[in-house]
Amino acid sequence: MPAETFTWKGRFGPMELRVGDATFRPSTISTLLADALHFKPGSVVVDVGTGSGILSIIAAKLGAGKVYGVDAAPETVDIATANAKAHGVGDVVEFAEGDMFEPLGDVEADVVIGDVSGIPDDIASASGWFPSGLSGGPTGAELPMRMIEESKRLLRKGGSLFLPTGSLQDEKSILERAKSVFGSMRQLAERNIPLPTALAEDPAVVRMFKDKVIALKQRGSRFQWTARVWEIQA
User: 3-class SS at 11?
Assistant: First the structure.
């Protein structure tokens, strides 16, 4: 079991979380998603891209009847399970390692937390944010769009998909796909996030900004990107 820990300071925090070499550390988007989550007590929740399991833990603490967390990164099950047990929700949360929703079989959900990687491959590689090497595809939209399409099959009618997007990806394509698959959606949160100077100057970022794949705002000498959270009704 890894010795490294991460301190979660968001909703229900602070919480100490175990993380491994390939574990995605909770981010500003994780915090935004945690703050935005809401559902009826007893709901069945699926947390895809669970990482350390933090959003699954939050869902359990909010009263979910059952939570399934899935991630393709190695050691997901051991790490996330240990975190859930340490924070008193091990009896509610179950984790699986695998591709998207494939490990869940015929599970039906009231809520999907769709926090899969949405950063373009070249930017993800330059950023170092994704220790597992898993990223969102050439434009950062490919994996989220696949997640949107696949979540349709397991979301019950009236259920909700909580979807994070950002201007550091082809956000327009993701939102268009969400509207075409589900129709009803509303924005719950938005935050501007500073982009590290070294990353802003990376050739991949410069190229995608020039090609209008991503959108950045300049504030003084720094660039920012915008993160958003959406609730999409099935």
Answer: coil
Distance separating alpha carbons of residues 64 and 23, to the nearest angstrom: 24
Cβ neighbours around 193 below 10 Å, total: 15
For helices 54-61 and 28-36, the axis angle rounded to 10 degrees is 20
Q: pLDDT truncated to tens, each residue of the chain (234 aa)?
A: 445 999 999 999 999 999 998 888 899 999 999 999 999 999 999 999 999 999 999 999 999 999 999 999 888 899 999 999 999 999 999 999 999 999 999 999 999 999 998 899 999 899 888 777 678 999 999 999 999 999 999 999 999 999 999 999 999 999 999 999 998 899 999 999 999 999 999 999 999 999 999 999 998 889 999 999 999 999
pTM summary value: 0.94
Q: How far apart are CA 84 and CA 50, in angstroms?
A: 12
Contact in structure between 115 and 48 (CB atoms under 8 Å): yes
